[in-house]
Amino acid sequence: MMEQSVEELLAKLVAVPSVNPEHSADPAVTGERRVADFIAGYLSDRGFQIEWLEKTPGRPNLIASYGPDDPKYTVLLEAHLDTVGIDGMTVAPFDPQIRDGRMYGRGTTDTKGPLAAALWALDRDRLQALSGASCRVIFIGAMGEETGNEGAFEVAEHGIRADEALILEPTEMQPIHTHKGTLWFRVELLGLSAHGSNPELGRSAILAMKKVIDALNSQIEADQHRFEDPVLGLPTLNIGRIHGGTALNIVPEKCVMDVDRRTLPAEDTRAILRRVDVVLAKLKSSGEIREGKVHLIKDCPAVATPPDGRLIGRLVKCCAETGVKAGPAGAAWYSDAGAFSAVCGETAVFGPGSIKQAHTCDEFIEISELHRGAKCLRGFFSALADDVKGMR
Ligand SMILES: [Zn+2]
């Protein structure tokens, strides 16, 4: 039987809609289950054992594994199953078309292209070489990446561990060894309401929040002096949302603010939150507020894998062998790698396709790059088997 080409495989994956449920209300296209079933079928045909982790009802994560139960080494491959929505698309989202050397459709680049390249690369020869070298392969299909990496965290918390992790995303075939973390939190202040004509009788939660903003600004300024990453640059702060007060002539009793803090690998997110707690405690003890609370919304750690380590070195070498000039790189965006870098050894993000075409109205991937990615990953799995064979 002729082997199916990587673009045939990608076309099949794109034809199975898996829009993140928060991006669409149409049940005909939303949810990860259909594409997860498709991938499970593909991998079980190749001898993978299939396991499901469905902590959020209707939103399964796929855990497929191949190789010895007591391996010398474990590699984890991960791709998110969801895509963004399809509103305003100018190409057919689920009927992939090839034109001018490109395949168009939702997910062609983010991230079904990189996923197809990896699935195609895991042929019987590679799988046999890996398991013969005592290397176990764990493939994770995670739900909910586009809205907050929920699936990746569910899988990481489930106890999945590996010596190295390759997260499949369109990186233009550059091995991403580091990206920033995301710390999202909400500050809630409770003052005391009073009539607007007697503000001295109340305690304005809005004026108190102004002091919190001032404190956050001086903290980020200090952090930007203290921390600078040679690849990622400076940590950042964005106050994305604020809401306070109920009427023009009432002293506001309540004020709520949402903060988006991007962190560097060297920073301690708990310390960042503790400093906010200290500010709130001072406002309370000075009587400016009755109550102040910080709620953590999301703490996704930054990723920092050594650029001169085993994983990045192997990726760079396999790129060179495929005719791609690549070197260790950093990224401004966030990925599922944060969740897995906390529980795996070296972690990298890699794949064909460009993030510039992700989430666009005419999303596409260059077929030639898809081929290079698939070939490069085949080389990667062979090289991994050799590496593991050589390990004590
Ligand atoms: Zn993605």
Number of domains: 2
* Count of β-strands: 16
The portion of residues assigned to helices is 25-40%
Q: Would you state the CATH class of the largest domain?
A: Alpha Beta
What's the CATH architecture name of the largest domain? 3-Layer(aba) Sandwich
Topology of this structure?
Blueprint: H1 6-14, H2 33-45, E1 49-56, E2 59-66, E3 73-80, E4 97-99, E5 102-104, H3 112-121, H4 124-132, E6 135-142, H5 150-157, E7 162-168, E8 176-179, E9 181-190, H6 205-226, E10 236-244, E11 254-263, H7 269-285, E12 291-300, E13 303-304, H8 310-321, E14 329-331, H9 337-341, E15 344-350, E16 364-366, H10 367-389
Parallel strand pairs: 3-6, 3-7, 7-15, 8-14
Antiparallel strand pairs: 1-2, 2-6, 4-5, 5-16, 8-13, 9-11, 9-12, 10-11
Bound molecules: zinc ion.
Describe the model.
The chain folds into two domains: 6-179 and 302-389, 3-Layer(aba) Sandwich (Aminopeptidase); 181-300, 2-Layer Sandwich (Alpha-Beta Plaits), CATH 3.30.70. 33% of the residues lie in helices and 26% in strands. The strands form four sheets. Strands 1-2-6-3-7-15 form a six-stranded mixed beta sheet, sandwiched between helices. Strands 10-11-9-12 form a four-stranded antiparallel beta sheet, with helices on one face. Strands 4-5-16 form a three-stranded antiparallel beta sheet. The longest helix is centred in the last third of the chain and has 23 residues, at 367-389. A hairpin with a 2-residue loop joins β4 (97-99) and β5 (102-104). With 392 residues, it is α/β, with parallel strands linked by helices. It has helices at 6-14, 33-45, 112-121, 124-132, 150-157, 205-226, 269-285, 310-321, 337-341, 367-389, and strands at residues 49-56, 59-66, 73-80, 97-99, 102-104, 135-142, 162-168, 176-179, 181-190, 236-244, 254-263, 291-300, 303-304, 329-331, 344-350, 364-366. Bound molecules: zinc ion. The site of zinc ion has 5 residues, from loops.
